[in-house]
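Morning. Coffee machine broken again, so started the prediction first thing and wrote up yesterday's gels while waiting. Chain of 544 residues, entered below exactly as on the submission form.
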Amino acid sequence: MTNSSITLPYVVEDDERKKLFTQNMETAAMLCLAEAKRKKPHILGTSQEKLSFISKLHYPLWAIPWDNNSIIVDGLEIFSHAITYMKPPDVKLFVEDLQRSRTIRAFFRSILKKHAKTFEDFIDATQISIDAIVANKETLTTIQQYITQGLTYKKSATAPIAIIPPKLDEKLALERAEKLLDTWRLIQSEIKGLQYAINVLSEETKHHEQKIASEVEQIKETFEKKLSHIKSEVDKKIEKLTTERNAKTKRIFKASEKELKVALKEKERYEQKLEKLERDKRVYQKRKQIRKRKGDEAGVTYWEHKIKVCKNKISEVKGKLKVLSRFIENTRKQGELGIKKLNDSYQEMIVRERKKVSDIEALRDSQIKMTQKEIEELKSETSAITNLIEQLIEQKRLHASQLKNLTIPWKPEKVTLINVPFYVFRYETEKKSRYHMHPPVVAMGYEGIIRKIQKVIWSFSLESRIKLLLHPRSEALEKMFTSMFAEKIRKDKAFGEIVYKAGSSNNLLNTKDFREVLAKGMEELKVEGWISQEEKDAILKAYT
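Came back before lunch.
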């Protein structure tokens, strides 16, 4: 296999820094830090340490292209990551159950009830360990920014670099990345499977809905024929009943009118007779008054008798008129009552006939409603299961996106080895040794710092001043080297031996031009105001 590689700069200048931070300054600054961290003889008996070596090594990271991103694989396999894999319910069984119940709706309904809770949750959760994958978001962000800056940062140094031999070569790095990719592909496959389950459920539900809709049409058609026949018979019967009712009503009306006509004629005759008697009575009364004025007692008595007879006849006629009026009124009421009873009787029969139609319509509507209710129940049951599956799909998509987030937005043309520089100091005493790692840094501008702390900067220790000059690129990289890498050295003797060999064979203290480089770098640090002349002289005396 062939791969490309990029080597990132150990130091980059801050935007506010106006002067170039040279390789000589880098070497001098690292030696200042190494010397500052070296344990000196102490009154309590602390053993004096010797700086065994100071070495600029490179940490191997693999960038494995994936779409438009890269998976970062730790070449030393110090990083590890575990992802939670959520196993979905058995989609195949669910689909087979649905398809098996296609011909029988009751069976299909039972399958929906059987699987009502199948997709409520994943059936199992397991931890999948993906060793060597760099997954920490802050670390990935730092690496991505570091690569972007490193690719555009130009430095004149062309010296060969010292790389800690990768535990994972390109093939093994690809295998580690492939494990992540396989998990992502599995999730994508499961998403498709769950979506397929939704599609099959939708298709099968539509199939049964169409069958139910056909049944509704069949019900309508069956009842339409029956209703057409019944309505025809009912209409004929109602027409017949209406004709009978009208005829009987007419007869009752005629009979009543005949009786009323005789009674009314008789009443009219008596009313005329009453009018004549009333006129006679008034004439008799006038004549009586005339006889009375003339003093004709016999005449008065005569007319009084006539008036009395007339009054008796009037009373008799009024009595007969009263009887006739009651008779007329009763006859009319009886006629109206008879017609009403007749109408009510026939209306009841008409209603009964019409009920034959409405009963069939009600039966039809009831059957249609029951059938349509089944459609609604099917839709509801299907919707509930679909919603559960969609929730699982969303969770699966979230899991997939979380795996995608274990990448950086940078795509090299092929697998690329990224060499991340760092310094390692080894200190020794007669009895033990220890390491100190210093991660990549940003060189700050002197002017900005001086403006802020000009009065107190020389009260700071040498180490503090160098740290003001060289800031760690990020907490993530600082933790990576000073914690994880250092812990690996302490716990893994074989790894510690590898680091020792790499550091010893690339010891800056033993390079041919070390003295010259150190002298130039110390002078540049002094001129810029980071170290004093005394500190410069002391370090040059100790290491040259």
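The mean pLDDT is 90. Going to sketch it on the whiteboard this afternoon.
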